[in-house]
Design goal:
This protein is of the alpha/beta class. It contains seven helices and twelve strands. The strands form three sheets. A five-stranded parallel sheet has the order 2-1-3-4-5, sandwiched between helices. Strands 6-7-8-9 form a four-stranded antiparallel sheet, with no helix packed on it. Strand 11 and strand 12 form a beta hairpin. Helix 5 packs across helix 7 and helix 6 packs across helix 7. The longest helix is centred in the middle third of the chain and has 15 residues. The protein is elongated. The chain starts with a strand and ends in an 8-residue tail after the last strand.
Length: about 230
């Protein structure tokens, strides 16, 4: 399941896309203009943006620049939805892909899957993690720091592996709530901070691998020598 942000000023189009994407198992947010879409993207980083190429308040290039200008949304793939005669509108705009109108939902899903495959790092779920003093056996879900085994709760383990596998990519608290906890009514963003604090205390000399991005969330260091 992907988190898809649809930005389209046509209400009927938004509603159809939202309904069909949800039926396909994706989480969907919709915005009627670029300004609203950028606010939503900052609050909860989407996995991909479906963008109408003729928004009244911002060009596709402007949307892409805005996403790249924010640490929390940098690298989010953008798929522009446009008519055939609009190809020049998005030329050099920085979009990841384009899909011509009219389109089928099968085409939309295919474009989303392709964009996600390009954007997400390839992770072998069976390969142990070897990162500086950190070692993780994925099969047995065991963790060692500088050769000493540490005991993590299932949530702490999932949080650690999720951050590592998306290293040097900022993860908002809402994103972590969705992907690690599976958002429920009794869970708040403070829960993320509490678990990160506990995780760091157990990681000892590897604690600096989990970095705080003020006002947004957390990220895992790009390399063992990089400290937040």
């Amino acid at each position: 399941m992907a988190r898809v942000l649809v930005i389209d000023d046509d209400r009927e189009s938004r509603e159809v896309l939202e309904e069909q994407l949800r039926r396909s198992g994706h989480g969907v947010q919709t915005a009627q203009n670029a300004s609203e879409g950028m606010r939503m993207a900052r609050e909860r980083r989407p996995d991909v943006v479906l963008l109408d190429a003729e928004l009244p308040d911002m060009t596709p290039a402007g949307v892409c620049r805005a996403l790249e200008g924010e640490m929390s949304t940098r690298g989010v793939p953008v798929i522009a939805m446009l008519a055939v005669d609009q190809q020049e509108v998005v030329g050099g705009a920085g979009v990841t892909d384009v899909i011509g109108k009219p389109f089928s939902m099968r085409e939309v899903i295919s474009h989303i899957e392709s964009a996600l495959q390009r954007a997400r790092p390839s992770v072998d779920p069976t390969k142990p993690i070897e990162f500086g003093v950190l070692r993780v056996d994925r099969d047995e879900q065991r963790v060692w720091i500088a050769g000493q085994e540490v005991t993590l709760t299932p949530l702490e383990y999932k949080l650690l592996v999720t951050l590592h596998d998306r290293r040097d990519q900022v993860q908002s608290r809402d994103t972590l709530l969705s992907d690690v906890w599976g958002i429920s009514a009794d869970v708040t963003t403070r829960t993320v901070d509490t678990h990160v604090k506990r995780l760091r205390s157990k990681l000892n000399e590897a604690a600096d691998y989990v970095q705080t991005v003020r006002g947004i969330g957390y990220r895992f260091a790009a390399s063992p020598d990089q400290h937040g």
